[in-house]
Amino acid sequence: MAGAGMLRPIVAVLVLAGTAISVRAQEVNDYPTSARAEYVFGCMKANGESRQAIEQCSCSIDVVASLVPYDRYVTAETVLSLSQVRGDLGSPFRTSEQAANALNDLRRAQAEAEVRCF
Question: Please, what is the angle between helix 33-47 and helix 51-67, to 10°?
Fold first, then answer.
């Protein structure tokens, strides 16, 4: 019975450590599955629709997600989309410093993903 009493503190520490690791993993993996899938599909269109492209594109979004918080990624994707609107409506997304910073963050992350994954 003395052995069982000694195991309780060890089990408690393991449970707490597992919880901390789980919380940390959720912080790092804050991109929803749909956003990851959309990125991989777009990447595969640009890089070929092969098994190798799936692996490389999946790696790429993992690298991007590790470097750019999801809210910043959404901002950059929105800027990319709205900067393509012609005329005055798209102008703020093509010329603002905030838009440029968001795009630069995403482009740096994608460049790093290119080096690591392709």
Answer: 130
Expressed as residue numbers, the domain containing 16 is: 1-30
Note whether 24 and 37 are same-domain residues.
no
The number of angstroms, rounded, from the C-alpha of 73 to the middle of its chain's C-alpha atoms is 8
Q: Render pLDDT for 29-73 as a digit per residue (tens, 0 to 9).
A: 699 999 999 999 999 999 999 999 999 999 999 999 999 999 999
CB 109 within 8 A of CB 64: yes
99 and 81, same structural domain?
yes
Pick the closest to residue 80 from 62, 58, 63, 100 (CA basis). Answer: 100
pTM value surpassing 0.90: no
